[in-house]
Amino acid sequence: MKIAIISAYYPSQEDLYSGGFVHIRVKNYIKRGHDCKVFVLDSNVPNGKYFFEDVEVFKGEENFIVSNITSYNPQVLRIHCLLKTTVAICSQYFTNIPKIIWVHGAELMWTSFLYPYDGNILLLPVNFTLRFVKDLIRRNIFRKFIIEQDPHLVFVSDYLRKQVEYFLGFKVKRFSIIPNPIDDEIFYFSPRRGKINKLICVRSLNSSKYAVDLVIKAFRKSKYHVVIYGRGKLLDYYKKLTQKYNANVEFVDRFLTQSELSELYRQYNLGIMLTRLDAQGVSVCEQNMTGLPVITSDIEGNKEFETGGTIRIKNNELWRIEKIIDQLNEEPERLEEMSYKAHEDILRKAGKEKVIEEELFLISRVVSQKSTFT
Questions:
Q1: In what order do the strands lie in the sheet with 99-103?
Q2: Could you say which of 65, 171, 235, 327 is the most buried, measured as most Cβ atoms within 10 Å of its Cβ?
Q3: Both 131 and 249 in a single domain?
Q4: What CATH number is associated with residue 289?
Q5: CA–CA distance, 17 with 24 (Å, rounded to integer)
């Protein structure tokens, strides 16, 4: 099949971390013999083409992208991270090409209600109003597009489907639930044994939705040490919070490749990944895939990805965390059992091979249905 992937971002040698979840799919489609090209809409960069790990990527403004998609003449448009510009070109130029939209969250959700606000609390009413107005504008554009174009929507979880339907104001008829794939070759399994003295947390520090502040509060004056890997605009704030609570927390200000993360996870026997909002919790899934048990928040969004290696707590029950670690240290055989279950369960739910096959079957079906009606 000839598959055009339209995305808001994609990795490059200058930005290795952008859109890695899209790249893992494209690499595996090509590996299975499919013809794929990636198109990134970005009017802030010069029009151009580059290759990333043998994937051909076109990046630039609307006319440049439209011209190259037209020349490519794909059988299907596979859309990630829906933008208003994506809606514009698809509605004007590609009405007859079947479309599949992978929904990742914020683009089709009420961010004004669901996403935490990280700014000055005194400006909360003004900022909430601005975010709400932006949500309404996005809602009207995307709602019209989905009704008129009738694309197939893919959600990583049923929780996300419900949130999107709430945002759009109607039930979605054509959809699939397919999680983000977890690469078990990169995040290969190693059983965990022994005592827990330190825990790992890997987060973007750009949003309070990842609840790093709760991790800090949970480990105030704790005998257990937490190392938080990540960077972002809230780093200085979190460091000050750590000092305020005298928390046993250390920050490592860097991003890591997937291979680096995989090796890092193997140095720990327990992860701590609290959150206020998630549709899947990919980092938790990656940790589980390596056999690392994880303490995470008991919220609806990630319940579908619970494994025998996840320990769920309420965000208002932080006092339980140290007791849980104590119990695991008293029962070392339980840690090893959880390690095996974590890997087996997430491999069954979101293993790379399973997910890629599901996605390619869906793409083939959508292309076939379009051919039947034309």
A1: 48-52, 55-60, 35-41, 2-7, 76-80, 99-103, 152-155, 175-177
A2: 65
A3: no
A4: 3.40.50.2000
A5: 12
pTM (2 decimals)? 0.87
The reply to whether 193 falls in a domain is no
How many angstroms separate the CA atoms of 68 and 285, rounded?
36
In a domain, 187, yes or no: no
Handedness of CA 123, 124, 128, 131 (dihedral sign): positive
Determine the 3-state secondary structure of 316 from DSSP.
coil
Q: Which among 221, 290, 280, 215 is positioned nearest to 260, based on CA atoms?
A: 290
Q: Coil, strand, or helix at residue 159?
A: helix
10-residue averages of pLDDT along the chain (374 residues): 94 80 93 97 93 95 97 97 90 95 76 56 65 76 88 94 89 94 95 96 90 97 96 93 97 90 97 92 95 96 92 96 97 95 98 96 91 49
How many domains are there within the chain?
2
DSSP string spanning 236-298? Answer: HHHHHHHHHHTB-EEEE-----HHHHHHHHTT-S-EEE--S--SS-HHHHHHHHTT--EEEE-
55 in a domain, yes or no?
Answer: yes
Domain that holds residue 122: 2-181+353-373
What lies within 8 Å, CB to CB, of 206 at 6+ separation is 232, 233, 234
